[in-house]
Amino acid sequence: MPKVWVYAELHQGKLAPTSLELMAKARTLGDVEAIALGGGAKAAAATLGKHGAKVVHVNEDAAFDDFVAEPATAALESLHKQGAPDLILFGFTPDSREVAGRFAARLGVGLISNAGDVSAKDGGFVAKVPYFGGAKLAAMKANKKPAIILIRPKSFEPSEAGGSAEVKELAVSIDAGSKRAHVTERVVEASEKVKLEDAKIVISGGRGMGGPDNFPLLEDLANALGGAVGASRAVVDAGWVPYSMQVGQTGKSVRPGVYIAVGISGAMQHTVGMKASKVIIAINKDAEAPIMKMADLGVVGDALKIVPALTAAVKAKKG
Amino acid sequence: MKIVVTVKQVPDPNSNLTLEADNTLSREKEVVLDPGDECGVEEGLQLKEAHGGEVVLVSMGPERAKDAIRKGLSMGADRGVLITDPQLAGADALLTARALAAAIKSEIADLVICSTESYDGSTGMVPPMLAELLGVPQLTFAKKVEVDGSNIKIHRQTADGYQVVEAAMPVLITVTAGIAEPRYASLKGIMAARSKEIKQIGLGDLGIEVGEPAETIQGFADAETRKAGAVIEFDGTALDKIMAVLAEAKVV
Q: What average pLDDT does chain A have?
């Protein structure tokens, strides 16, 4: 059986949902050992065990929470020296990207990022990676050992497998050389009513909204429908709305029951993050926009007129 | 303070991408300085204006990537370095990071600025690899940067707010596109850029070998595509049709 590691991501003691998604896949590929670092690692180990980890390597040193990437890289390096796995899975998330990149460069093995799936083939591993604007899926074979593959969030459905993990303390000395980029403060700004990634209905706005002053129109519609508001990278880059609202390849992946794309052309950067939605409605002034070719219903017209009209109709229907 | 900004020439985000016969992205079309990198250059220039020093642009690409460097020089950067070598065509993230690291090492920079991710690749894997190979810490997703003596402090954008991250320089930072509005190059700046140095170097100058790539593409499959549904004009009945779709999805 191949030896597979899953890098579990903890956010201030809480296991990131992506980690359990990775577990669901990893246990079909080999014997899984998970690595959980920082506060809450031992509690997370129990959950990881239920999801199929045979062993969970833990270390609750506060340095893993307080310093960026380098302590975690040192821990992985230390464990790797005791025995290299065949495959290491990371989530393609901002935090895991930093650790995976650093670790892959330290080992000199490189990595495959932005994968949507991974399978065993000819004694190695092949990842499926969107390519050429998402129109194609490239089958990429990892040439190095360990194969390091970063998987997009929401690629797999988490499920318990029964069982429990053996918890092993990961011995690593984190010296001053790894304690450099220091997280000294955490500020929470957004108080999302409905979390974007969990919302059943998502209404996202792009450049076609004309400007940040028009985003409240989307919020009104989201409130009427009980949904959440997202955005394209273009308007996040333009500073209209915060990054927390970005849906797409490097933003959030969503798969709601209904996704309403307003004034979004449909670049691959955006569509990889939402194309698994059950129903897609696109509102755009351009009938030829790529988003129209993937929408279940495309409405051509002025978003600033259509959205308020739709909000009124929804309110009327709901009474 | 010596500042290196990594810059990349990318297909114009406003034009459509096409694929070459060997499945690499066509770069024959209109190409521009990556808009994210423009923000990196701007941030570098603002830090230089506040703290003194030099801004050096380092890029990897074909010879015509000099145009992207020239754009940054016309904004006010001091000089450029272009790594160009036929063997680097189609380089993966690690090889890119290795080449950039080799070129940047000789600059002995206090601060390396990258954009969070490129417009064409959008995976953001080069910066953490580059930081590792340079042996410096990485402070990423910066939406605000403050330099105080030899220390640097950033606001790191997170899903629900931001973190304050601090380190002693040298460091590598990645900046989000919202960090600074890139300035327009003045006519004077464009003229001045013509005489600024762009040093061109190859793999031999850097003393690195290409090696085996991390992955091999075995083939392509068409991605699952969604079938296009009806496309309608927003007329008298459009609202009813939207409501019907919402009702069928049981959300109203």
A: 93
